[in-house]
Amino acid sequence: MLRQLLSLCLVFLMTPSFALPEEDSQKQLTLLRERMQIVEHNIAKTQRNKTKEEKDLRRIEKRLSESSKKLRSLNGKLLTAQNKIKTLQQQQMKLKVGIEEQKGFLAEQLQSAYLMGKQQRVKMLLNQESPDRMSRVMQYYDYFNQARIDSVKAIEVDILALKTVEEQLLNEKRELASFVDAKRVENKTLIASKQSRKVILAILNKQITSSGQELSALKENEKRLTNLLASIRQAINDIPILSKKDKSFVSLKGKLPWPIKGQLKKKFGSARKSGRYDGVLISAREGSAIGSISHGRVVYADWLRGYGLLIIVDHGSTYLSLYAFNESLYKEVGDWVETGETLATIGVSGGQQKAGLYFSIRKNGKPVNPVHWCRATRKGRVG
């Protein structure tokens, strides 16, 4: 059934209506997304026989992904708000100190004027003192008067600025409080979803173990990924990926960065129940950022049975990089990414028990050893 659906999809994709105007990047993006929607729709059809628990797992892991992204966003907003409050408090303190200094300066001026006496000018005129001396003293009077006026104006400006800063500070504190409340709610949602996931995983694992279907489930998952990659290759084969300034993926062999820092838990080609490992498994702290190994375009970003939240990047020349078991996905189909740009975060989706990243490089859909393509490992550690 799956083969027939894929064949129909491929025939449809090869029709003239999909001719690509290379000069129009927006049309390329629209075309890519339309094609991938067809691929995802056909994959969804083949998975209608999923059990209730499998459907629940997909739903909960996608909900966990959204909660994790919201929490990260809220944490960023909290940090920004806290920094703003700190800056405003510093401005507030500076203005208060400035106002007090201006008040002190004004008080000194008033005291000086008082001591000199309000009738000093009249006395000087009556005593017929030297015109030069009179001129200098009157200039001093004018200077003191202007200084007093300037001091009053400066205080008025600072008081107005202080009022503005205090209003901004109050608004920032209110916004901070709303972020804290939202984070508290999202944390509760996350905890509840994790508990639900734990229960569902226990049921699924019991079902697979009791029926002796563990090996069969692994092979089905691998077949599902293979079919997905075949559909993707056909969908993108006439959409250009590289510009003239970009280096070809092949030229970067042995120089590519690893997507994450961590320990290699499963090496390429190592034995597993369903055969050989077709990628690597890297253990890392849950929530750590996963970076793209090279320039490319996202061609898949969704949940796939056995792989959880999966993101696939096309690097041109039929090379793809795959990142699975993610906590959250930060890119969508059609997004361009640069080397090191965050694609997702480390998680346990797809039914995993421990946080880690399944990472694979494919050439024409066939797996190649990432160790030969990425920078040298050191004592089993990468990145």
Walk me through this protein's architecture.
Residues 1-22 have low confidence and may be disordered. The chain is an alpha+beta fold and 383 residues long. 56% of the residues lie in helices and 17% in strands. Helix 1 packs antiparallel against helix 2, helix 1 runs parallel beside helix 6 and helix 3 packs antiparallel against helix 5 (131-210). The strands form two sheets. Strands 1, 4, 5, 6, 7, 8, 9, 10, 11, 12 and 13 form an eleven-stranded antiparallel sheet that branches. Strands 2-3 form a two-stranded antiparallel ribbon. It has helices at 2-13, 25-46, 52-116, 120-126, 131-210, 214-236, 370-373, and strands at 262-266, 271-272, 275-276, 280-283, 289-291, 296-304, 308-316, 319-329, 336-337, 342-346, 356-363, 366-368, 381-382. The protein is built from seven helices and 13 strands. Among the domains are: 79-200; 249-382, Glucose Permease (Domain IIA), CATH 2.70.70. Strand 11 and strand 12 form a beta hairpin. It starts with a helix and ends with a strand.
Helix and strand layout, with pairings?
Layout: H1 2-13, H2 25-46, H3 52-116, H4 120-126, H5 131-210, H6 214-236, E1 262-266, E2 271-272, E3 275-276, E4 280-283, E5 289-291, E6 296-304, E7 308-316, E8 319-329, E9 336-337, E10 342-346, E11 356-363, E12 366-368, H7 370-373, E13 381-382
Antiparallel strand pairs: 1-4, 1-13, 2-3, 4-11, 5-10, 6-7, 6-9, 7-8, 8-10, 8-11, 11-12
Features:
383 residues, alpha+beta, Glucose Permease (Domain IIA), two-stranded antiparallel ribbon, 7 helices, 13 strands, disordered N terminus
